[in-house]
Amino acid sequence: MTLLFRTAVLGASLLLLTGCAANTLESSVSPSTAEAIAPTSNPVDETLETVDITIPASLLGDLTDDELYQMVADQGYVGYARNPDGSVTFRMSLAKRDETLQSAAMSVEGAFAAIASSEPSILAITHSDDFRSITIEVNQEAFEATDSASLIGVDVALSATFYQMYDGVAAQDYLAKIDYLDADSQVVYRSETFPPEVAN
Questions:
Q1: In a structure prediction context, what are the per-residue pLDDT tens digits for the chain, which is 200 residues long?
Q2: What is the strand order of the sheet 187-194 is part of?
Q3: Eight-state DSSP code of residue 87
Q4: Is pTM, for the whole model, over 0.90?
Q5: Do 57 and 87 form a contact (C-beta atoms < 8 A)?
Q6: Collapsing DSSP states into helix, strand and coil, what is residue 1?
Q7: Strand order in the sheet with 79-82
């Protein structure tokens, strides 16, 4: 994971998770019951009133139960549960999920902007609404001559999966297909998929 990605995305994760929303709802949990939720088998089910979003341990750090409870209370979530792999599943209302997802989209677009500004040969980074299909428009010759050409895709893909995480996509289903578009010819000259094992 590169320094650029850590700065743009991990910082955004803390912003989303530590109570920066303009309005919060009263939490329905207490420190003694906050871990009692059971994650649903289908995290994003629009017929339900709540949604479960799982955040990897790597984005949360070593938070105590008191800190997690305070996060739940500050953000207006319903509750949380620790998972055996160290990740934490937060339960929230659909409205809160939509609010958080909008913030996540803005954060990822900010990360894309930072990536583009770090490399003059990148003219634009565009994406589908779900951040699973991404186009990087470049000056091909200049871009391929840079040392970062092979790393940019990783940063972009990691940023895209940050959004997908808040969209309720299971970690094993994260996907980012990246097309490299030459600005002069308007031809996609290279494509790559992350993770690589789902390329075909």
A1: 343 433 344 444 444 544 333 222 233 444 444 444 544 444 444 455 888 888 888 777 788 888 888 888 888 888 888 888 888 888 989 889 899 899 999 999 999 999 999 999 999 999 999 999 999 999 999 999 998 888 899 989 989 998 998 888 888 899 999 999 999 999 999 999 998 865 55
A2: 122-127, 133-138, 176-182, 187-194
A3: -
A4: no
A5: yes
A6: coil
A7: 50-55, 88-93, 79-82
The closest alpha carbon to 74, from 114, 30, 17, belongs to: 17
Q: How far apart are CA 55 and CA 173, in angstroms?
A: 14
- For 136, residues 6+ apart whose C-beta sits below 8 A from its C-beta are 122, 124, 125, 152, 153, 156, 178, 179, 180, 181
Joined together, the tokens standing for residue 66 give 């008191």
Q: Quickly count: other Cβ atoms within 10 Å of residue 64's Cβ.
A: 8
Rg of the Cα atoms in the chain: 18
Give the separation between CA 42 and CA 51, rounded to whole angstroms: 9
